[in-house]
From TrEMBL:
The keyword Lyase applies. It comes from the Bacteria. Keywords: Lyase. The lineage of its organism: Bacteria, Pseudomonadati, Pseudomonadota, Betaproteobacteria, Burkholderiales. Its EC number is 4.3.2.7. It is an enzyme of class 4 (lyase). InterPro entries: ChaC, GGCT-like, GGCT-like_sf. It holds the Pfam family ChaC. This is glutathione-specific gamma-glutamylcyclotransferase. It comes from Cupriavidus pampae.
Length: 270
C-alpha cells in the first residue's frame, strides 16, 4: 500500500510521486515519459492560436476548476474568477492514487461536455511557460485521464466589466480513459467521497477544499454544495466514525475568514 504523503512543488519538479509509483501495481496505469512529453509539446505548439487579442505579450492562462483553485502550485502573476462554456464540473474521474486506492477508488473532479463552469484563471508569465507546464503535466497528466484543451473563457461572471473572451489551458475529461466514471447518482458519489483516501488524503477533503476555495472568491456551486450537504447528512445518520478525514465544517456556516484559513493549511497537497 502506498503511504500517504504531502506533495510539494519540489516533488513535482523532481517527479517524486511518479518515481514512488513505478514499483507498485499502479505503474501500468502511468503514461510513459515519452507520451507525457509529446502531450506537453503539443499543448505548447497550440498555444500560439490561444494568445489573447489584447496584448498579453505571450503570457498564457490556466483554468482551474478543482484543486488548482485552492492550491495552484504554479508561478502566476494574476488570478481571476473566470468561466468557461461548453463544459461543466463534476465528479467524473475515479482516483486510484491521489484520493483513493486501486481496490477502493475515490472520485475527483473533471470537466465534461455541456453547460458551463466557474473557476479560477491563473496567468503564467511568458518566460516560465514551459517550466510551469511541466509541473502541471506531472500533477494532472500522470495517467492520461485528461485532455489538455485551450478553451474560451470570460473573466468574472461573464457579464461584468471585462467580457472580452480569452483562451486558457484546461484539463478536460478523457472519456476513453478507464477511470472515467460518467454521471453517477449523488448517493454513489457521496458514498465514495465519505470513505475513500489516497496518497493526497481523503476524498471528502478534496470536495470541502474546492467548495471553500470557491467561496473565498465569492463563487458558489450548487452541485458541490448539494453533495457536501448530503455527505454531512450521511455522517449524522450513520455516525461520522465510519468516514475518513477530519470533522467536516458545515458549508452553510463557512464565512470568508474561515474559508481563507481553511485553505491556507493544506497548500502542500493536491
Amino acid at each position: 500500500m502506498l503511504a500517504r504523503m504531502a506533495i510539494t512543488r519540489q516533488d513535482l519538479e523532481s517527479d517524486r510521486l511518479r518515481a514512488s509509483l513505478c514499483s507498485t501495481p499502479v505503474a501500468s496505469s502511468l503514461l510513459t515519459e515519452d507520451a507525457m512529453e509529446r502531450s506537453l509539446r503539443c499543448a505548447l505548439a497550440e498555444r500560439a492560436d490561444a494568445d489573447g487579442p489584447d496584448g498579453d505579450s505571450g503570457d498564457v492562462w490556466i483554468f482551474g476548476y478543482g484543486s488548482l483553485i485552492w492550491n495552484p502550485m504554479v508561478v502566476h502573476t494574476d488570478c481571476r474568477v473566470a468561466s468557461v462554456h461548453g463544459y461543466h464540473r463534476g465528479f467524473y474521474l475515479y482516483s486510484r492514487i491521489n484520493r483513493g486506492t486501486w481496490d477502493h477508488p475515490g472520485l475527483v473532479l473533471g470537466l465534461d461536455r455541456g453547460g458551463s463552469c466557474t473557476g479560477m484563471a491563473f496567468r503564467i508569465p511568458k518566460n516560465v511557460i514551459e517550466q510551469e507546464f511541466r509541473v502541471l503535466w506531472r500533477r494532472e497528466m500522470m495517467t492520461g485521464a485528461y485532455h489538455p484543451r485551450w478553451l474560451r473563457l470570460k473573466f468574472g461572471d461573464g457579464d461584468g466589466a471585462n467580457p472580452t473572451p480569452r483562451r486558457a489551458l484546461a484539463f478536460v475529461m478523457n472519456r476513453g480513459h478507464n477511470g472515467y466514471a460518467g454521471r453517477l447518482p449523488d448517493a454513489d458519489v457521496v458514498s465514495c467521497l465519505r470513505h475513500a483516501c489516497g496518497v493526497y488524503g481523503p476524498a471528502r477533503d478534496y470536495l470541502q477544499q474546492t467548495l471553500l476555495g470557491l467561496a473565498t472568491h465569492g463563487v458558489g456551486d450548487p452541485y458541490l454544495a448539494r453533495l457536501w450537504h448530503q455527505l454531512q447528512e450521511r455522517d449524522a445518520r450513520e455516525g461520522h466514525a465510519g468516514s475518513v478525514g477530519s470533522q467536516p465544517t458545515p458549508c452553510a456556516a463557512v464565512d470568508a475568514d474561515t474559508a481563507v484559513a481553511s485553505t491556507m493549511a493544506p497548500h502542500e497537497t493536491v
